[in-house]
Each structure stands twice: as structure tokens, then as C-alpha cells.
Amino acid sequence: MTCIDRRDLGLLLLRLGTGGVLAAHGSQKLFGWFGGGGIEGTGQFMDSIGYAPGKVSATAAGVAELGGGLLLALGLATPAAGAAAAGAMAGASAVHAPNGFFNQEGGFEYAASLGLTAAGLAVAGPGRLSLDHLLGHAVDRGWMVPTALGVTAAVAAVAVGARGRRLRRAREGQQGALFE
Fold first, then answer.
1. Can you give the residue range of the structural domain that contains 10?
2. Which stretches are transmembrane (predicted)?
């Protein structure tokens, strides 16, 4: 019999809190729950901030947040779950970065904190109070951590980079219209 220690309890609390918040945000995007816009409203918002196509971007962000959040809370497939959530938060951080760091000014502090916590859980693992532990870590192998984080970083970089290019082109088009 294994003894549950405070590290396991701490990881459980981090997983439940972070996973719950992420899952709630994802359900706003996907289903319109908790005052969210659903796919339609979130898709329009995504288009307006440069993530196109909007509905595809809304779906991807919603699935990463809801799926990653639920899996983190359960402690299942922790490397993939943490990486997916961290990737979604990288995209959210890019939106908020022009507003500075602090959330009260619309900055990226909140999204970055969620993303770093999710990435930290992917690296640290779920602890013994988890489905990963119960299932013998079948979907929580050491090699999965760098793979999941690397793939997610690449996908996030492509998405954020494409958004940046769209925004630059839109600004250049607006500036050109001013001189006509």
C-alpha cells in the first residue's frame, strides 16, 4: 500500500483548480455556458482579434481548454492535457500582451499563469491521486512530456505568428486607405 503524501495532495489541488477553470472557459467557447459566446459568438470574436477562421479557432481553443482542463483535473494523459491547455493560454497571452502584464489593465498575467501552471503539471506529473497513476501511467510516459510540449509550442507559434501577420496586413491596409 502506498502512502499519499502532501505532494500528491498539492498536485491534486493544482489539477482540480487549474483544470476546473480551464474547463469552464472551454465550455463558454464551445457551448455558451457560464455567459460565454458559444462557437458562433466566440468564432466572431476570434475573427475580430485575428485568429481566422474564427469558428475553427474557437473550436480549437475550446477543445484545448475544456478537454485539457478535464483531463488535468482527472490526472489523465497529463502531458498532453497540460500541453494542450498551455498552448491555448499561449494564444490568449498573445492577445493580451499589448495591454501589459497586469490583468486589471487587460494584460496577459491571468492567461500566462494558467498556461504556466498547466505546463508545470505536464512536467511534474499528476501525482498518485490520479487516473494516470491508477492506470499505471499508460498515457503518462516520460517521453510524452517533451513531445507534447514541443508539438504544442510549434502549433502555438504557427497560430500566433499567422495572427500577427493578419493584424499587420490589416494595419497596413488601414494606413494605405488613409493616404488615398
1. 6-178
2. 70-95, 143-162
